[in-house]
Amino acid sequence: MKPGVRFQPIGVVRSPYKEPADLPPPAFAPPRFFERSAGEIEIFSDFAAGLDGLEGFSHIIVLFHFHRSGPAKLKVVPPGRSKPRGVFATRSPHRPNPLGLSVLRLLGRDGRVLEVSGLDLIDGTPILDIKPYTGRDRKSHIRTGWLQKKRRPGR
Amino acid sequence: MKPGVRFQPIGVVRSPYKEPADLPPPAFAPPRFFERSAGEIEIFSDFAAGLDGLEGFSHIIVLFHFHRSGPAKLKVVPPGRSKPRGVFATRSPHRPNPLGLSVLRLLGRDGRVLEVSGLDLIDGTPILDIKPYTGRDRKSHIRTGWLQKKRRPGR
Question: Are residues B54 and B130 in contact, defined by beta-carbon separation less than 8 angstroms?
C-alpha cells in the first residue's frame, strides 16, 4: 500500500439539501440558484479559535469530504453530456480521493458558525478545511475546455 | 477518535524548489515571481486516464498534502506581520488537516505529466486531487480582510 494521509473533520455543513438528488447539477440549475442558496458551516469547538480573522473575507474556500460519493471512476459522463471525460477534468464526486471544493460567499460569522451562500453541499457534509479566498485564486482570461461547448444561454 | 478519511497520493510535484525555505512567502516574492515559476506534476499511471480532457482548461486547482508542515496550530503569525490570525483565515501549511490548494496555469500535458506555471510547491509534494478551474471559482468584488491592510505598493 502506498503511503497515505488521514484527515479528520473539523466541522459539518447545515444545508437545506438533505440528499444528493436535492441539488441540481450546476449546468441545470435555474439562473441565480446557487447565489440564493444559503446555509451554515458549524466548526467543532476544538477548532473554533482557528476562525479568528476570517470574517474580514467576502469569500471562503471550503474543502470537504464527498461522503456520499460512489466508487471512484477514472472516466465520468458529466450531467447532460454524452462524451466521457477524465474525472480530473470534471468536478464529479466519484474521485480517487473524494475531496470536494466550493468557493462560498461568507455572509457572517457567529462564534464557530459561518453563514454562507452559494451553497452546493448537502446537509451533514464533513468539512476538512477552510481557507480565505484571495486575489491569487482569482484568475482572468480562463479557458474551460469541454465546459465551454454547448453552453446554455444566459450562463 | 472521530471518524476520519484516508487519502492516497495520485501524483507528485517536480519543482525547482527543493526545500520550504526556497519559496518566498507570496507577500515577499518579487513581482511576477510565481507567474514565472514553472514545474511539472506527474500523475501516477494508475490514475492517468483521469486526465483526459483536462488539456482544454487554462487553469487547474491542485489539492496537495503539506507533507513538510509542522504541528498544527490554531493561531499563526503570517510572514511579515505581528498579529496572530486564526489558521483558517490564512494559507499557512500548519493546519489541523495539512491540505494545500494552489490554482496553477496549465501550460500543457504530455501523457500523465502536466506542465504548469504559477508553481508555489516544493519538489516531492504529494498530489491528492486535480480539478478544472471554472467560472464558478472566479469571484468578483472580493474583500480579503487582514490581507488588504499594509499592502506593498504594486501588488
Answer: yes
pTM score of the predicted model: 0.94
pLDDT digits (tens, 9 = 90+) for A94-107: 999 999 999 999 99
Neighbours of B80 (CB within 10 A): 10
Q: Which residues of A touch B141 (CB under 8 A)?
A: 58
Q: What are phi and psi of A11, to 5 degrees?
A: 180, -170
Nearest alpha-carbon partner for A125 in A97, A107, A98, A105: A98
For A48-60, write each residue's pLDDT tens digit.
999 999 999 999 9
- CA-to-CA distance for A117 and A94, rounded, in angstroms? 24
Q: Which residues pair with A7 in a beta bridge?
A: B5
Residue A36, class by beta-carbon neighbours within 10 Å (0-12 exposed, 13-18 middle, 19+ buried)?
exposed
Q: Do B49 and A135 touch (CB under 8 A)?
A: no
| Binary contact (B88, A4; C-beta < 8 A) | no
The answer to whether A138 contacts B136, with C-beta atoms less than 8 Å apart, is no
Residues A50, B74: contact at Cβ < 8 Å? yes
Nearest by CB to residue B86, choosing from A49, A142, A148, is A49
Task: Please tell me if residue B29 touches chain A, with a CB cutoff of 8 Å.
Answer: no
Q: ipTM of this predicted complex?
A: 0.94
